[in-house]
Task: inverse folding
């Protein structure tokens, strides 16, 4: 019974893969069929090459890994972590703005805690759309004209001193800010890996902003652009949160029982 | 191996040192498709720690590599399953294709490995085909062992190997 070329090739391949002798019917075909003999020879050569070059290939993969910095900036793990951070901060921001609005409602005071400049900045960094809703909330939260103030301490001074009711809300609000800072630092250390950790620590003393951080990171790996964009969003969002709210005044107000 | 099973730390370290790069290499290719692009190093690390935590369950009837790779593949599947929604969200936000493109490491990899048959295989074959081929010729596992690692039938592995061979022979012939 004559066998098809396909069957012969498969039988040859299986024999090579399983390191066993060729069946008799294949052997007999090899003697008369030149193309099958060629296929057998080439398959044997290929198997030899695959075995011979496997160790070199593994070594080259390892050396590439060694050359490549342990940078996960371009990896999904990094993107995933960054997205989660931004989403978490955006959610916390939105939640944190609720007590601010409630306090405005209760006190009837104009919103001096959030400056127009900060609101614009927040809007400008929300290119991904993650925190656009929060920015809109900031912009829409006050029916009064926003007053621009420059520093966190000035903002703190502008807090109305007559707040009496929402003590618990402020406590919760302060905890929220602490949680944001904790999430920011923990994820930066744990998820982003050594290179970012190093860069962050280099700049921690000099209070480097997100742009300086970005310059160093871009030099580290050119493929990190998208991840850096998310990182900038995160940094600006958390900076905005940290600077925009009069934590010290609130703390002292809470400690003194308003 | 017996020392490792008895809890010898030195033996365990040597085994981990030997298998870690192999696991990473295998998993990197295995997990390279779309949103399944997990971090192979993390998966390898989890697989190694799971294997050594339960090393007393290792059956000497089988090769250690078969056992370890089976664990690694299951860990990878679990991770993919757990993170499926998050990965799709992450890849929706950013472009996964940019990861490999223009990466200096990737360029070095391509340049250095231009002549290696495995580089051709990596480029040409599907993830399953490459995995089966690597386990057979890179790790010297038998077809039955590969089937166990990849949770497939031996017949399916034979087909994968055969198709890989045809694709590689065709490519070599073109050269």
Result:
């Amino acid at each position: 019974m004559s066998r098809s070329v396909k069957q012969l090739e498969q039988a040859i391949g299986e024999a090579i893969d399983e390191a066993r002798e060729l069946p008799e019917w294949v052997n007999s075909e090899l003697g008369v069929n030149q193309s099958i003999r060629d296929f057998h020879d080439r398959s044997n050569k290929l198997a030899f090459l695959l075995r011979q070059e496997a160790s070199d290939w593994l070594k080259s993969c390892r050396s590439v890994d060694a050359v490549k910095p342990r940078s996960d900036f371009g990896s999904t793990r990094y993107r995933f972590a960054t997205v989660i951070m931004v989403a978490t901060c955006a959610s916390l921001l939105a939640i944190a703005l609720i007590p601010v609005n409630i306090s405005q409602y209760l006190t009837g005071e104009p919103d001096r805690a959030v400056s127009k400049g900060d609101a614009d900045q927040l809007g400008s960094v929300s290119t991904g759309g993650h925190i656009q809703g929060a920015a809109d909330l900031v912009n829409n939260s006050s029916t009064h004209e926003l007053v621009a103030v420059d520093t966190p301490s000035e903002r703190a001074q502008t807090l109305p001193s007559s707040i009496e009711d929402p003590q618990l809300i402020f406590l919760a609000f302060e905890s929220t800010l602490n949680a944001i800072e904790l999430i920011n630092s923990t994820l930066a250390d744990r998820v982003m890996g050594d290179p970012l950790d190093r860069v962050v620590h280099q700049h921690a003393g000099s209070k480097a902003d997100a742009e300086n951080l970005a310059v160093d990171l871009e030099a580290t790996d050119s493929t990190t652009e998208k991840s850096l964009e998310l990182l900038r969003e995160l940094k600006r969002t958390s900076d905005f949160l940290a600077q925009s709210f009069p934590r010290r005044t609130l703390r002292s107000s809470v400690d003194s029982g308003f | 191996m017996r020392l490792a099973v008895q809890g010898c730390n030195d033996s365990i370290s040597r085994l981990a040192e030997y298998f870690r790069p192999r696991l990473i290499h295998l998993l990197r290719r295995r997990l390279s498709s779309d949103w399944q692009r997990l971090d192979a190093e993390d998966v390898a690390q989890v697989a190694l720690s799971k294997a050594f935590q339960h090393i007393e369950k290792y059956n000497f009837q089988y090769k250690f590599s078969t056992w370890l790779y089976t664990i690694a593949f299951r860990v990878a599947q679990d991770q993919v399953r757990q993170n499926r929604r998050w990965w799709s969200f992450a890849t929706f936000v950013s472009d996964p294709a940019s990861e490999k493109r223009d990466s200096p490491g990737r360029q070095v990899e391509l340049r250095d490995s231009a002549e290696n048959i495995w580089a051709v295989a990596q480029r040409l074959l599907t993830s399953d085909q490459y995995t089966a081929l690597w386990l057979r010729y890179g790790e010297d596992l038998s077809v039955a062992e590969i089937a166990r690692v990849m949770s497939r039938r031996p017949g399916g592995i034979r087909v994968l190997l055969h198709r890989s061979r045809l694709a590689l022979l065709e490519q070599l012939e073109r050269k």
Chain B touches chain A through 52 residues (CB under 8 Å). Residues 91-102 of chain B have pLDDT under 50 and may be disordered. Chain B is about 75% helix and 0% strand.
